[in-house]
Design goal:
Elements lengths: L5 H22 L5 H14 L4 E11 L2 E13 L3 E6 L6 H14 L3 E6 L5 H4 L1 E5 L1 H5 L4
Helix pairs in contact: 1-2
Length: 139
């Protein structure tokens, strides 16, 4: 198993955003989120990036696992949460959703990607880190 470091996560983030850019470059904007998700799955496979799609997220409350249907779009290399959107305007609720998924999965980093934009890199993605990231070794 690979040691997760801040540098590794930064490189992985770069690779995933690159995959999203390739999908966006091929398809453009204006499609449903589900279309982008399927295409990003193919692009991640092509790039040999390990991921789980529609990863179920457990919620433990008072030492009991609750039957809730939380799913993140992608959980990459067991350390990076990726949420996809295809919306006209990003909302703070999407950021809150991503941060919650990161916390529940104990994931140090997450990316929110909106395919309904002109340029993924400049305006279509936002990266988040949490307290788990700060605990990771740098290299």
């Amino acid at each position: 198993m690979r040691l997760i470091t801040q540098t590794y996560l930064d490189e992985l983030t770069y690779d995933v955003i690159g995959a999203a850019i390739e999908v966006h470059k091929t398809l453009g904007s204006g499609l449903l989120e589900s279309v982008y998700q399927k295409c990003l799955e193919e692009e991640l496979k092509y790039r040999n990036i390990n991921f789980q799609s529609e990863k179920s997220i457990s919620v433990i409350y008072r030492d009991k696992e609750l039957n809730v249907d939380f799913r993140c779009d992608f959980f990459i290399e067991n350390c990076l949460v990726v949420e996809l959107k295809s919306v006209n305007e990003m909302s703070s609720i999407f950021e809150a959703q991503l941060l919650t998924y990161m916390k529940l999965l104990k994931s140090p980093k997450g990316i929110l990607i909106n395919f309904n934009c002109f340029n993924i890199f400049k305006e279509g993605q936002k990266t988040f880190v949490n307290e788990y990231f700060k605990l990771l070794p740098k290299n």
